[in-house]
Design a protein that fits this description.
heterodimer; A: MetI-like fold; two-stranded antiparallel sheet; B: alpha+beta; Rossmann fold; OB fold (Dihydrolipoamide Acetyltransferase, E2P); 2 domains; six-stranded mixed β-sheet; five-stranded antiparallel β-sheet; 9 helices; binds adenosine-5'-triphosphate; binds magnesium ion
Chain lengths: ~300, ~375
């Protein structure tokens, strides 16, 4: 009964929206595949990918540092997490974007040698760069905690067994601990990626022409604000849906070795269901359906 | 290299082993002394079995030799080189852990082949050696399964193959056969011994199972409370236990009340020589092996210190273990099966004690028979 009620409410809202007098659905359709929007999507994807790349690589480094027996190294790592997790991303992007106003030049040099290199901050930290740095450095703080949780979830006996085989600390980490930590690391990382895809819209404050910025630029010209927000939402939804599916298969891959048998994928389950439908009606419910789609096909 | 210990000379010739010396090793955990000055020298290529009750520090000893744990005192020396501060990955050891510790994200084959990768063995050679090792432990059909798809005993065998595959200088085995059935256990025990002799690896083998220890070790070390109680060839440990603890831990013993007088102990009318020749006069408990209890003749109903009634017989093959009720105590006697068969339960027998040197115990709290 509750289900009927819920469905009725949803239908009501959908009807109200679909028939809203000032909502121009044809505009939504028109802008959905507009070139500017599609270009915005590419930039959103680039921003997400780069920020996650920085986040994961740097996060892994910060996590390993955090677990270091050296107190200086682990404190540096702790401070990094404390700082980047404790300030809003929006402010961080803003900071990088406006760095040139307080620090017109950045340079690299080796002290006491004539070797010196310098460039104007503005040309180095372009808007895209500012947003990528802001998002990536912030993400690294969160990823560090995720990776750390993954590493400490791997039983210490694994490290010992690998050391007994002669492996160095670094190799133990790379070949034994991290692959097993993945099982714990992947699900929240998937969440982070999905979240990043949407958070990347904050690049708006650095005038990066990503999806949301583009949709708002168009809206400021034609006043179809809601319509363009819907366009952006549809695209964000589509992209997060694809990521969700990707995450599922990634989790499956890293889950091998932890279960005696992997559960079937939705596709396998779907095919099994179809076979069940085609099977003759009188069938005991607990008998596995016959056919090639049942287990075995899982182990490639 | 000089071995300070006795009995090592009976060891077959070895090719590649190193001498392993544990010198006064100490290890404390919060409140618990796991190792209390353990000293032990393994000659190159020797197999020493460590035997002892649960919690006596066997695993701790192995972990210190492996370098997985820091010492609170003492040294570990491999072939004259002090390795006390050398990390585990530089010690060239092979280890089988009590908890197996297979890598779950790798198949059985990958687990075995993995260690060799670091030892600069070519891919083809690696694959071949890994499958040979799996063959050796009888797991070829399971080579491509992940650890969680293997039974406990199968996992243990993969762990053994993994440790042997890298041809280590020193092999450390922590109850490597505990999860196996008697038949596989006996076969693998002999395989370990064969491979070990072939390669000449110096091996420290921890086990609960005294039969296993006595069967394959060059020498057996019996531990209690973090110390070595006795170290010697299996025969010696069994037939000449150095302490009452060893006597009662290895094999079966009868605990019989007696009186020490003039360098011998008088037990139920028989004078037995003493192992502890410096024992003072007075009451004591003598530890008498079942083999030292012999059949003296048919019993009659007349009471005598060693006359009694057979109450149970366990056939062991050529010999049988007979339980005899002497009235105030029961004793175990190991008799020829033909003699045992002639005296079924309920019949009277007259026993005798063979005058082998015996150990005595003077623990007030100890019960007077067992
Ligand atoms: N990490 C630890 N922290 C505290 N106590 C420990 C630790 N490891 C071992 N111990 C204690 O040290 C003692 C020796 O342990 P050890 O594992 O060496 O025993 P063991 O002889 O291998 O026993 P078993 O035959 O049951 O495997 C035990 O009393 C144990 O409780
Ligand atoms: Mg143990």
């Amino acid at each position: 009964m509750a289900a009927v009620l819920v469905l009725a409410i949803i239908a009501g809202i959908a009807y109200t929206m679909a028939t809203a007098p000032n909502l121009r659905w044809e505009a939504v359709g028109h802008f959905l595949f507009q070139r500017l929007i599609l270009q915005g999507i590419v930039i959103t994807l680039e921003l997400t990918a780069l920020a996650m790349l920085i986040g994961i690589v740097l996060g892994a480094i910060v996590a390993v540092m955090r677990l270091s027996p050296n107190p200086v190294v682990s404190s540096v790592s702790w401070c990094y997490i404390w700082f980047f997790r404790g300030t809003p991303v929006l402010v961080q992007i803003f900071f990088w974007y406006n760095l040139a106003t307080v620090l017109p030049y950045v340079g690299l040099g080796i002290p006491f040698t004539p070797i010196h290199w310098q460039a104007p901050t503005n040309s180095l930290i372009a808007p895209f760069m500012a947003a990528t740095l802001g998002l990536g450095l912030n993400e690294a703080a969160y990823m560090a905690e995720i990776v750390r949780a993954g590493i400490i979830s791997v039983e210490h006996g694994q490290t010992e067994a690998a050391q007994a085989l002669g492996m160095t600390r670094l190799l133990v980490m790379r070949r034994i601990v991290l692959p097993q930590a993945m099982r714990v690391i992947i699900p929240p990382t998937g969440n982070e990626t999905i979240s990043m895809l949407k958070t990347s819209s904050l690049a708006f404050v650095a005038s990066v022409p990503e999806l949301f910025t583009r949709s708002q630029q168009i809206a400021s010209a034609n006043y179809d604000v809601i319509e363009l927000a819907i366009v952006a939402s549809i695209w964000y939804l589509a992209m997060t849906s694809i990521l969700t599916v990707g995450q599922y298969y990634l989790e499956r891959y890293f889950g091998r070795g932890s279960l005696r048998e992997l559960p079937p994928t939705p596709l396998q389950r779907f095919r099994r269901m179809l076979l069940t439908f085609h099977a003759p009606p009188p069938m005991p419910p607990d008998v596995a359906p016959p056919g090639p789609a049942v287990p075995g096909s899982e182990h490639r | 290299m000089v071995s300070s210990s006795s009995g090592a000379s009976s060891r077959p010739s070895a090719r590649a082993g190193v001498e392993v010396r544990l010198e006064d090793l100490k290890r404390r955990y919060a409140g618990v002394t796991a190792l209390d000055g353990l000293s032990l020298t393994l000659a190159p290529g020797e197999l020493v079995a460590l035997l002892g009750p649960s919690g006596c520090g066997k695993t701790t000893a192995l972990r210190l030799v492996a370098g997985l744990e820091e010492t609170d005192g003492g040294r570990v020396v491999f072939g004259g080189e002090d390795v006390t501060n050398v990390p585990a990955n530089k010690r060239e050891i092979g280890m089988v852990f009590q908890a197996y510790s297979l890598f779950p994200h790798m198949t059985a084959m990958q687990n075995v082949a993995f260690g060799m990768q670091l030892h600069r063995v070519g891919v083809a050679e690696r694959r071949k050696r890994a499958s040979d090792m799996l063959e050796l432990v009888g797991l070829s059909p399971h080579a491509h399964k992940y650890a969680h798809q293997l039974s406990g005993g199968q996992q243990q065998r993969v762990a053994l193959a993994r440790a042997l595959a890298i041809k280590p200088k020193v092999l450390l085995l922590d109850e490597p056969l505990s999860a196996l059935d008697a038949k596989v256990r006996a076969r693998l025990r002999d395989e370990i011994r064969r491979v070990q002799l072939e390669v000449g690896t110096t091996t420290l083998f921890v086990t609960h199972d005294q039969e296993e220890a006595l069967a394959i070790a060059d020498r057996v070390g019996v531990m209690q409370s973090g110390r070595l109680e006795q170290l010697g060839p299996p025969m010696t440990v069994y037939s000449r236990p150095a302490t009452p603890f060893v006597a009662s831990f290895v094999g079966l013993t009868n605990r019989l009340n007696g009186v020490v007088r003039d360098g011998a102990v008088e037990v139920r009318g028989t004078r037995l020589p003493l192992v502890q020749t410096d024992a003072t006069n007075g009451p004591a408990v003598a530890l008498v092996r079942p083999e030292a209890v012999t059949l003296a003749g048919e019993g009659d109903s007349t009471p005598g210190p060693l006359n009694g009634t057979v109450i149970a017989t366990a056939f062991l093959g050529a010999t049988s273990r007979v339980t005899v009720d002497l009235g105030d105590v029961t004793v175990l006697a190991q008799l020829a099966t033909s003699d045992a068969a002639a005296h079924p339960a309920g019949t009277r027998v007259r026993l005798a004690l063979r005058p082998d040197p015996v150990l005595i115990e003077r623990d007030e709290a100890a019960p007077d028979h067992g």
